[in-house]
Amino acid sequence: xxxxxxxxxxxxxxxxxxxxxxxxxxxxxxxxxxxxxxxxxxxxxxxxxxxxxxxxxxxxxxxxxxxxxxxxxxxxxxxxxxxxxxxxxxxxxxxxxxxxxxxxxxxxxxxxxxxxxxxxxxxxxxxxxxxxxxxxxxxxxxxxxxxxxxxxxxxxxxxxxxxxxxxxx
Amino acid sequence: xxxxxxxxxxxxxxxxxxxxxxxxxxxxxxxxxxxxxxxxxxxxxxxxxxxxxxxxxxxxxxxxxxxxxxxxxxxxxxxxxxxxxxxxxxxxxxxxxxxxxxxxxxxxxxxxxxxxxxxxxxxxxxxxxxxxxxxxxxxxxxxxxxxxxxxxxxxxx
Lengths: 169, 157
Description:
B: 6 helices, elongated
């Protein structure tokens, strides 16, 4: 199967060059997913970009996740890469604690990561070290709090007229 | 002849203000004339953000014509507009911009808030949507949206 082949080939290359920095490599439904150590992520992606047999030259997505139940590994950044030549897709994940939400920036490899990292900062509070313009992109500049974290309330807190009983609070 | 056409189609002319009439002239006070002009031909500034903007476009079109009210001349410059029509969801980031547009309008100016989102945040009670433009600018008329026949709104103004 094509996807299984992607997993085995990419995993082999990564383990050969990065060894222990690849925490896990697995198949989630039909997607090859690799969990990498946070400090090495830019080097791994650069390697996947440059290596002649890998050639993952398209950054499909860069987003954040928040799992408050994984103590010590609450926040994460997910990278989706695409090899357009062979139509291979992989996902790379890094996880870290909410108290130490700093990640090296990917803008040196992909320019598209610029706005994606700003959005991740805006919504999760993950700071990308080395980013040329680390500020909020979609929300108001002086906003306090990070909306996509699980503890942030959905509703606007400044409404006086909504009856708590009717809205299930 | 003209009056028959008007009666058949339920059209009314604006009533003339008190004044002196004669063959070929009509004299009245200046502020009355300006009053007629303001009431019967309002030039809107369509601040169309969302779906209500599309409804506005439909109102401008031939079927529900906005030229009936003299409002077919839109201006996107606040200096030349009478009526700021805010149509659509206003995000909190858009708030200061809307306020700036309102400030730039010359007196007399009116504000029409069209749709649930502009009037009160609508279904979007969330961190990013301004819960009603009346939090930042004074609003004269609120229109809960249906496909349009906003004649009552203009007449209210």
